[in-house]
Amino acid sequence: MIKINETKKAIKLIAVKDNSKNKLIKDKPGQITLISEDKTVYLVLKKDEETFTEQISAGIKSVISNFDFDIDIEIDSFETICKGTKKETIIKTIFETISFETHKGLSIAKTEKEVNYNLVFTGDFKNLISELKIICEQINYARDLQDTPPNIGTSEYYAEKLVNDAKGIKGLKVTVLGRKEATKLNMGLFLGVNAGSAHEPRIVVMEYCGDSSKPKTGLVGKGICFDSGGYNLKPSNYMEGMKFDMSGAAVVLSATMALAKANSKANIVAIGMFTDNKIGQNATLPDSVIESMSGKKVLIYDTDAEGRLVLADGISYLVKEKNVDQIIDASTLTGTVLFALGHNATGAFSHSDELIKELSKASEKSGERFWRLPIFKEHLKQVKKDAAPLADLTNACKVRYEDCSYAAAFLNEFAENKPFLHLDIAGTADKENKGQGVLVKTLFEMLK
């Protein structure tokens, strides 16, 4: 548990720049050493290829994994050494690392002894701490949604849970749309993905307006509770981790809950498009042509390219029904973004330099990395060419490469010329079979 400036504990953690005071200290950046006689854990920080924040985070992780006693973390000692790094950033790094690493989540392991981490510092950072508590709580909330086993985490389950958990959050309105509403809205693409499912489709709509003068931002998250690939069935090794295909919905809704809890001056409509993608007697077949909510006809070249289908109808809903000014989507969309960026960054696609600029500023504060990838005019041409003459667009091109850009070009066609930012989190949503709650911090910083 994280404490702030409480009664001091028996053991303290301080930062040092070398081992000149005690040769027993490991003189390597980010390394910790416990000297029991001093009742002190020493964390070495120095100029290195890793930044001070990376070294601090590594050191705090080591403390958590190696020691099970209560400890004071004397932050003023960090500030003295980390020249050029704001105290606010140091507090933020330590708080976020502890919150992330100590979160038990859905583990069935027995509860171990609770360890208290007492952050000791001078100065008034009440607002920062208050904000950090909310953000970290919602990051961990998103991670729990992501980690839910797919036999439990169905579209109906997520809708019911989100409605219940959002109760009592001031200013947050939550609505759930089902098959009846989606049919009335002509959401052919969303319903086409759901056609093989034993579970009812659900669209969770969260609305929060803390400042009506702000541009209304539409957030849409891919909520594929499990992706088998449909009739274009995935090979067994590609089925692993497909419960994380709803990560986009988890993070946009969690970020919206955080913005509301913090009474942010934001104007948001966020939607999670929940369904699974399975094979069934009514499942959509490859080469089918389906009409979208926008009226555009889509050739389903590949039923395993289902994410862009549910997002397309989600984007149309935000434009037509909620009259948003700009749109951001988050989705575990393509394998090609993983090939391009690995697990090191989220792929960002947009024709709007302004949205990319805002994302970049938010990224500097959140510490989450993004890399801009292209949507060339050739990408849209190919999406249209491979659909002709039966449809306006295809959900997957016959060209082997650049699928992440083809997907972005496809989605952009449903934004009706409004500023649109597509964030492909296929490589960053989960790590070692654990949800990461990626984007919650960045969307909060971007929109607060």
From TrEMBL:
<dbReference type="GO" id="GO:0006508">
    <property type="term" value="P:proteolysis"/>
</dbReference>
<comment type="similarity">
    <text>Belongs to the peptidase M17 family.</text>
</comment>
<keyword id="KW-0378">Hydrolase</keyword>
<dbReference type="Pfam" id="PF00883">
    <property type="entry name" value="Peptidase_M17"/>
</dbReference>
<protein>
    <recommendedName>
        <fullName>Probable cytosol aminopeptidase</fullName>
    </recommendedName>
</protein>
<dbReference type="GO" id="GO:0005737">
    <property type="term" value="C:cytoplasm"/>
</dbReference>
<dbReference type="InterPro" id="IPR011356">
    <property type="entry name" value="Leucine_aapep/pepB"/>
</dbReference>
<comment type="function">
    <text>Presumably involved in the processing and regular turnover of intracellular proteins. Catalyzes the removal of unsubstituted N-terminal amino acids from various peptides.</text>
</comment>
<keyword id="KW-0031">Aminopeptidase</keyword>
<dbReference type="GO" id="GO:0070006">
    <property type="term" value="F:metalloaminopeptidase activity"/>
</dbReference>
<dbReference type="InterPro" id="IPR000819">
    <property type="entry name" value="Peptidase_M17_C"/>
</dbReference>
<keyword id="KW-0645">Protease</keyword>
<dbReference type="GO" id="GO:0030145">
    <property type="term" value="F:manganese ion binding"/>
</dbReference>
<feature type="domain" description="Cytosol aminopeptidase">
    <location>
        <begin position="140"/>
        <end position="443"/>
    </location>
</feature>
